[in-house]
Amino acid sequence: MALMHGGQLQQVAEQYEIPLIDWLDLSTGIAPTSYPIPNIPVNVWQQLPQLSPKLIAAAKQYYQCSQLVITNGSQAIIKALPDVYRKKNANGQAVYLPVRGYKEHAQAWKIAGYKLHWYQDLLPEIENLAENSVVVIINPNNPTGQFYTCDVIKQYHEKLKQLNGLLVLDEAFIDVMPSENSYCPQVNDNHCFVLRSFGKFFGLAGIRIGFLVANNDWCNTFAALLGPWQVNGPAQIIAQQALSDTHWQEQQKQTLKKWRTAQEQTLWQVFSKALILDIKGCDLFLTIAFKQADSAKKIYHLLCQQGVYCRLADEQDTLRFGITSADTLARLENACAHACEQLISEK
After folding, report:
1. Does 4 reside within a domain?
2. Domains in the chain: how many in total?
3. Which domain holds residue 333?
4. What is d(CA 107, CA 212) in angstroms, rounded to the nearest whole number?
5. How far apart are the first and last CA of the chain?
6. pLDDT at 5
7. According to the model, what pLDDT value does residue 147 have?
8. Phi-psi category of 203—alpha, beta or left, where left has phi over 0 and alpha has psi -120 to 50?
9. Which parts of the chain sit beneath pLDDT 50?
């Protein structure tokens, strides 16, 4: 069964009968500003994509790792991993996953017949992990914003090494944090690998490119499985330049931090502590938990009626907002204020 994600704007626009062009789409954690597209030679469009040594070098520098595989996004790895892991470790049965998090992880392991164990913000008790098991950590978590330090991650990595297990780290949103928060530099054996997203921080999700940071064994396995021409030539050129452009990266971090701070303050002011339990997230999204769980679904509907699209959690008790730019923050504020007025008047 296909899972629902953010970014389904066309479907939502049809449902609420509002033209696509009139929407403010905050349903994803994709940066609202994008890396500028460089000039791309005509021959790059004409030829089958070759693996770019310049991109590989830029990615290794950016992720501070010695080995990686370029993919057309993390999804291909997530979907294939359960069957690949079964071939590598036939004794593996247990997988530990966050209750809230990117649902494609759990979907893949469930379909493959593994036994799923759930944890909240606190990671599973390290001494209770099963032999040959897999622990999936989304860091920072989407949508809760929960973050675990490298020291904590290291403890689980070492424990899973003893148990002949695997630590899967999804760092799709970590680019907005200082680089030393990433675990990529410490990946060096068969018991841990890291998934990295390109499109979210660089605001270019449409070019579909991602990276698997792993040791030679895992890299060779997935390179053979995924086959040639994983990423188109133009996408490789764009990614190579973006990953090398440290000046732009620093500007992007500062801009996103400023916009996130302003948006978080606005959301607190508009919804007030009478409605909101908490706001958590990172510089790419903010998730609101409400004191009354049904408020999330009601406000989602009221915002959609105004052409503002955020992400209603699968549990339907929280709302996740992507970060909006300064010039559209006022529209978000007005829409939220109007939604609050309507919600209060209905009570």
Report:
1. no
2. 2
3. 9-34+248-346
4. 19
5. 37
6. 61
7. 97
8. left
9. 1-2
Q: Contact 134/85 with Cβ under 8 angstroms?
A: yes
Residue given tokens 């396995």 in the structure block: 221
Distance of alpha carbon 232 from alpha carbon 234, whole angstroms: 6
How much is the pLDDT for 6? 63
User: What is the structure's pLDDT at 112?
Assistant: 97
User: 318-322 and 285-290 as β-strands: parallel, antiparallel, unpaired?
Assistant: antiparallel
Q: What single-letter DSSP state applies at residue 150?
A: H
Span 165-200, pLDDT tens digits:
999 999 999 999 999 999 999 999 999 999 999 999
Tell me the chain's radius of gyration from C-alpha atoms: 21
Asked if residue 285 lies in contact with residue 260, where contact means CB atoms within 8 angstroms, the answer is no
String of DSSP letters for 211-223: EEE--HHHHHHHH
Q: What's residue 1's pLDDT?
A: 46
pLDDT computed for residue 4 by the predictor = 56
Angstrom distance (rounded) from CA 293 to CA 47: 53
pLDDT, residue 314, reads 86
Mean of per-residue pLDDT scores for the chain: 94
* Rounded distance between C-alpha atoms, residue 216 and residue 91, angstroms: 22
CB 76, CB 229: distance < 8 Å: no
Distances (CA, A) of 261 to 113, 266, 275: 42, 9, 20
Same domain, residue pair 204 and 253: no
Tell me the C-alpha distance between 213 and 190, whole Å: 11
Within 8 A by CB and 6+ apart from 281, the residues are: 143, 145, 260, 264, 287, 320
Q: For residues 257 and 342, state if they share a domain.
A: yes
- Last residue of a domain, which of 197, 218, 244? 244
Strand partners, 69: 212
Distance CA 12, CA 68 (A): 37
Distances (CA, A) of 194 to 119, 170, 302: 20, 6, 38
